[in-house]
Amino acid sequence: DTAVSQTPKYLVTQMGNDKSIKCEQNLGHDTMYWYKQDSKKFLKIMFSYNNKELIINETVPNRFSPKSPDKAHLNLHINSLELGDSAVYFCASSHNEKLFFGSGTQLSVL
Amino acid sequence: DQQVKQNSPSLSVQEGRISILNCDYTNSMFDYFLWYKKYPAEGPTFLISISSIKDKNEDGRFTVFLNKSAKHLSLHIVPSQPGDSAVYFCAASVYSSNTGKLIFGQGTTLQVKP
């Protein structure tokens, strides 16, 4: 009965590969997000979708493409992975400005 | 340009004593502030929030204080318990924007010693 679930939890891959992270929420929220926690531990917003529509794109490289097939799902596809993409990626959904986070996906690019 | 800063990377307190975690912000447009708690290998979980129209909000052992003139907020945990050991993130938003975009600080690791 996990509220926000994302898979996989760990992702190890080579530079240049393409990978996807999936996210699903069962809270009935209209808005979903992707946040990135970098090596300095800052959590920064990447994207926000409201009811399948993109509403925030924080100058993220075009290699990152979010896709929302319905309001309960927000997947993140990353093309041509680079070393600097190594981070923990958190999916979240929100209600009244309160975010509910998934447990994170630790991406390691070798 | 970090709009939300937590200048103490870590804090250690004895069980039963008060824990005080601090946060500073620079953007005067922020009108809603939140604290999140994060355990290892888990996502952040919402702890407590405060609107800029208030200067204090209390929920059980947790109290958040907001000083708008100083652009400073703090989280007080009394009494501290070993289970409170975690990373605490301060976050801020412009509530009226209705985007849910939160700006986070870099976190403070709290260790509560038995």
Q: Tell me, what's the shape of chain A?
A: globular
Largest sheet of chain B: 6 strands, mixed
Note the overall shape of chain B.
globular
Termini Cα gap of chain B: 38 Å
Q: Kindly report the greatest chain-chain contact and the residue count on each side.
A: A-B, 24 and 25 residues
Structural class, from helix and strand content of chain A?
mainly beta
Element order of chain A: H for helix, E for strand: EEEEEEEEEEE
In which range does the helix fraction of chain B lie? under 10%
**Which residue ranges of chain A are poorly predicted, with pLDDT under 50 across at least 5 consecutive positions?**
none
Q: N- to C-terminal separation of chain A?
A: 34 Å
Count every helix of chain B, treating DSSP H or I runs of 4 or more residues as helices.
0
Mean pLDDT of chain A: 92
**What structural class do the secondary elements of chain B suggest?**
mainly beta
Q: Approximately how much helix is present in the residues of chain A?
A: under 10%
Largest sheet of chain A: 7 strands, mixed
Describe the 3D structure.
The complex is a heterodimer of chains A (110) and B (114). In chain A, 0% of the residues lie in helices and 60% in strands. By secondary structure, chain A is mainly beta. In chain A, the strands form two sheets. In chain A, strands 2, 4, 5, 6, 9, 10 and 11 form a seven-stranded mixed sheet that branches. In chain A, strands 1-3-8-7 form a four-stranded antiparallel sheet, with no helix packed on it. The model of chain A has no long low-confidence stretch (mean pLDDT 92). Chain B has 114 residues and is mainly beta. Chain B has no helices and eleven strands. The chains are: A mainly beta (110), B mainly beta (114). Chain A binds chain B through residues 4, 9, 31, 33, 40-45, 48, 55-56, 90, 92, 94, 97-104, and chain B through 2, 32, 34, 36, 41-46, 49, 87, 89, 91, 93, 95, 98-102, 104-107.
